[in-house]
Amino acid sequence: MGELNAPRPDTPATLEIGLLRHGEPVGGRRYRGHGVDDPLSEQGWRQMWAVLEGAGDWSAVVSSPLRRAREFAEAYAGRHNLPLRVEPRLCEIGMGDWEGRRPAEVALSDPAAYTGYYADPIRGMPAGAEPLERFYARVAAALDELSGEGPILVVAHAGVVRVAVARALEGSLAAMMRVKVPYAGLSRITRDARGWCLRSHAGT
User: Fold this and answer.
1) What GO MF terms are annotated (predicted)?
2) How far, in Å, CA of 92 to CA of 88, rounded?
3) Per-residue pLDDT of the chain (204 residues; tens, 9 = 90+)
4) Bridge partner list, 63
5) Is 31 exposed, middle or buried (0-12, 13-18, 19+ CB in 10 A)?
6) pTM of this prediction?
7) What angle do CA 109, 114, 115 make, to 5 degrees?
8) CA atoms within 13 A on the CB side of 126
9) Cα(70)–Cα(86) distance, rounded to whole angstroms?
10) 174-199: string of b/e by CB count within 10 Å (b at 16+)?
């Protein structure tokens, strides 16, 4: 399996992307899609600055418009004099009726729905949530359109990182939703003549 994704001398990477999930937001753990946009906590800011120390040089920064990603992207780009673009399609997936609610609260009030979501995230999304297929399509399109001569830092969300990983590995939508993405986790993907390749995930 490893040989299939190994780089070849005759097909160098033409684009490298670092995918940085935002740090811990104010308010602790709860469902945040694009309907709830808490700012970063002080710990969240520290997490994001720390993970990028020694992570390499970037040629540009692209960010989700949501403040828990965008405000750090603005600060980082400003500090390093990098061009910044805000990409609306990199918003987190909308979680419908669960927006702003804590997992423990949902599990207690509607255990069947809570269990159903994690067992089958395609059919078990909460009422009013953005369909996974639509979310995948918009994020994948935004990533496919990225271009540049140097590595690009994308500051976004767990769902966006999951789409990138699934696209690189040609994984299913259900498998995508089971990828763990920690706060301030930094993953790397490349695109060359063969398509997308996962280089590392969340620092591993």
Assistant:
1) phosphatase activity
2) 10
3) 444 444 444 445 579 999 999 999 999 899 998 888 999 999 999 999 999 998 889 999 999 999 999 999 999 999 999 999 999 999 999 999 999 999 999 999 999 999 999 899 889 999 999 999 999 999 999 999 999 888 999 999 999 999 999 999 998 888 888 899 999 999 999 999 889 999 999 866
4) 86, 155
5) buried
6) 0.90
7) 125
8) 18
9) 8
10) eebbebebebbbbbbbbbeeeebbbe
Residue 84: its H or E element: strand 84-86
Q: Which residue has the tokens 């753990």?
A: 29
Question: Tokens standing for 98?
Answer: 């669960």
Give the CB-side neighbour count of residue 71, counting CA atoms within 13 A. 13
Q: Tokens at residue 157, please?
A: 């969300």
Domain parsing of the chain, residue ranges = 12-200
3-state per-residue secondary structure call for 142-187? HHHCCCCCCCEEEEECHHHHHHHHHHHHCCCHHHHCCCCCCCCCEE
Alpha carbon 88 to its chain's center: 13
Which amino acid makes up residue 93? Answer: I
Domain 12-200: assigned CATH number: 3.40.50.1240
Location of structure tokens 């390499």 = 56
CA angle 126-172-66, nearest 5°?
A: 50
Tell me 173's DSSP state. H
* Tokens found for residue 6: 């190994």
